[in-house]
Amino acid sequence: MRFLTAFILFSLLFTSCAVKKQQGKEDKPFVDRNILWFDATANFDRFCHKDSIDYYLRKSKEVGITDVVVDVKPITGEVLYPSKIAPVMTSWGESKTKKDLSWDMLAYFIEQGHKLGLKIHASTNVFVAGHNFFDRGVVYDDPSKFHWRTTSYLPEGMKSITEQKNKYSAMINPVLKEVREYELSILKELVSMYPKLDGVILDRVRFDNLNADFSEHSKKQFEAYLGKPITNFPADIYSFEGKVRKDGPLFKEWLTWRSKIIHDFIYEARAALKGINPKLVFGDYTGSWYPLYYDVGVNFASKEYDPSKEFDWASADYKNYGYAEALDLFTTGNYYFEVEKSEILKKSEEKALESGLKVAQEEWYTVEGSAELVNRVTMGKTPVYAGLYVEQYKGHPEQFIKALQMCREKSEGSMIFDIVHIINYGWWDQVKEGLKK
Question: Which part of the chain is the Glycosyl hydrolase-like domain (predicted)?
Answer without folding.
Answer: 47-283
